[in-house]
Amino acid sequence: MLVGLCGRSGSGKGYIAAMFADRGIPSVDTDKVYRDMTGPCETLSPCMKELKERFGDTVVAPDGSLDRSAMRALVFWDGTPGNEEICRKNLTDLNRITHLHILKETERMAEAYLKGGADMVLIDAPVLFESGFDARCAAVVCVTAPEEVRIARIMKRDGIDREAAEKRLHSQMPAEELKKRSDYVIENDADRPTLYARVDAVIESLRNRRNGQG
After folding, report:
1. How far apart are the C-alpha atoms of 74 and 154, rounded to whole Å?
2. Using CB atoms within 10 A of its CB, is residue 152 exposed (0-12), middle (13-18) or buried (19+)?
3. Which fold has domain 2-210?
């Protein structure tokens, strides 16, 4: 059973995924899959070759990795009049190119967990619906948190200012839309015992669903 795990940046998906792992449910972090396939290398990966062809040499760092600063400048709108549509198209193309490669590797890793004895695997994907991977999942869990908390987390985690954090959130699917399209919502706004209780309730429901009881 594959279970999607989604949430806007700063919601704490990794924190919640670790709680699922404590209960014996592994996860595949699609962000990590993406970082691995766009990391330093002697020979460009198929994904990096496509990105270079679409966006040019400037997005490839000297060590063969993706120059994330250069890519962010291309896909996140800086407020320049008339530039928003270009950034939106760039982001669409970036997602189109990377999603196919990420999905293929994610499926391989999830299958390995299932063959290894796991009864379900979380697919931790910030763009679960945009990538189409939700269609491969039996259910979807959304992690959310108050907006101010998310902004503060992004600023601290990525070392960026509030304006940059808000721009990043602006490019993502709205929280209400994510919750509407998900089967479960975990509010990441409580202490650990309370969060574990919420996770346990979701796990019980998922297993009942898998066994045809829910």
Report:
1. 20
2. middle
3. Rossmann fold (3.40.50)
Cβ–Cβ under 8 Å, residues 37 and 154: no
**In 29-83, which ranges are continuous DSSP H helix?**
30-37, 46-55, 68-75
Token pair for 161: 């200012």
Higher pLDDT, 173 or 53: 53
State yes or no: pLDDT of 119 exceeds 90. Answer: yes
Domains of the chain, by residue range, sit at: 2-210
- Tell me the one-letter amino acid at 169: L
Buried-state track 45-77, b at ≥16 Cβ within 10 A, e below 16: bebbebbbeebeeebbeeebbbbeeebeebbeb
- Please state the pTM of the whole predicted model: 0.79
Average pLDDT over residues 10-30: 94
Higher per-residue confidence, 79 vs 21: 21
Q: What is the pLDDT of residue 214?
A: 54
